[in-house]
Design a protein that fits this description.
By secondary structure, the protein is an alpha/beta fold. It has 2 domains: about 130 residues, NAD(P)-binding Rossmann-like Domain (Rossmann fold, 3-Layer(aba) Sandwich); about 90 residues, Dihydrodipicolinate Reductase, domain 2 (2-Layer Sandwich). About 40% of the residues lie in helices and about 25% in strands. The protein contains 8 helices and 10 strands. The strands form 2 sheets. A 6-stranded parallel sheet has the order 2-1-3-4-5-10, with helices on both faces. Strands 7-6-8-9 form a 4-stranded mixed sheet, covered by helices on one side. Strand 8 and strand 9 form a beta hairpin. Helix 3 packs parallel to helix 4 and helix 5 packs parallel to helix 6. The protein starts with a strand and ends in a 5-residue tail after the last helix.
Length: about 230
């Protein structure tokens, strides 16, 4: 598999390191100073690329999607903070007939966490004495708060809590990659479900899985579809 990176910060470097271990070739790297554009130079450097992997910044995603569409390349978007443009990116993908897979979190562990949280929310929402909450802790360099993962967690819980919005507390401090906790608190006890990222490798691993998956598909897909395909049907 051959991929190109859009965004070459901390996550881009981890994806590159993991790709090298798996003998996946990185053909090019695009940055804010050298953004992805449908130029002759880009077409040459991207020759043979299976998919793009985007870990840039939220305000760059729409432009990247347009460039990917012009280049006819599928893209795995792991960037957060761009969901206000979700419908626009979807239209770009569908009109150009390219594949796009996106997720608020490309960690496979987090996506299993989502499923466990959904089941717990279904059970606890029937018990009025238990108050649900979400804690969202990331390193001090993360720009968006709440995180896309916390918002996706709340969205999934909303299917069971209806108009009752589950509160999110966000903390941006230290150097921890991410800790997401869902709790159900009552006067007598508390039940908590937690996902802790030890490093960025889990996100990079999921991104490479997503890039391989979308390289053979078209249309607009959530990362959950990639995770669903990991289990036998």
């Amino acid at each position: 598999m051959k991929v190109a990176l859009v965004g070459y910060g901390r996550m881009g470097h981890v994806v590159e390191e993991l790709a090298a271990e798996r003998r996946i070739e990185i053909l090019d790297r695009f940055t804010r100073e050298r953004p992805l554009r449908a130029t002759r130079e880009s077409r040459s450097s991207l020759d043979g690329v299976t998919a793009l992997i985007d870990f840039s910044v939220g305000d760059a995603v729409l432009g990247t999607a347009h460039a990917a569409a012009e280049l006819g390349l599928p893209i795995a978007i792991g960037t957060t903070g761009w969901l206000d443009h979700l419908d626009q990116v979807r239209r770009v993908a569908e009109e150009a007939d390219i594949g796009v897979v996106y997720g608020s979190n490309f960690s496979i562990g987090v996506n299993v966490f989502y499923r466990i949280v959904e089941q717990a929310a279904e059970l606890f929402s029937a018990l009025p004495s238990y108050d649900p909450f979400i804690r969202d802790w990331h390193h001090r360099f993360k720009l968006d708060a709440p995180s896309g993962t916390a918002l996706e967690t709340r969205r999934r819980m909303a299917a069971h809590y209806g108009d009752r919005e589950v509160p999110i507390t966000s903390q941006r401090a230290g150097y921890v990659p991410s800790v997401h906790t869902v709790g159900f608190d009552s006067p007598g006890d508390i039940v908590q479900i937690e996902h802790q990222a030890r490093n960025r490798q889990g996100f990079a691993d999921g991104a490479l899985v997503a890039a391989e998956w979308i390289g053979a598909r078209r249309g607009f897909h959530a990362f959950g579809e990639v995770v669903d395909d990991l289990w036998p049907h």
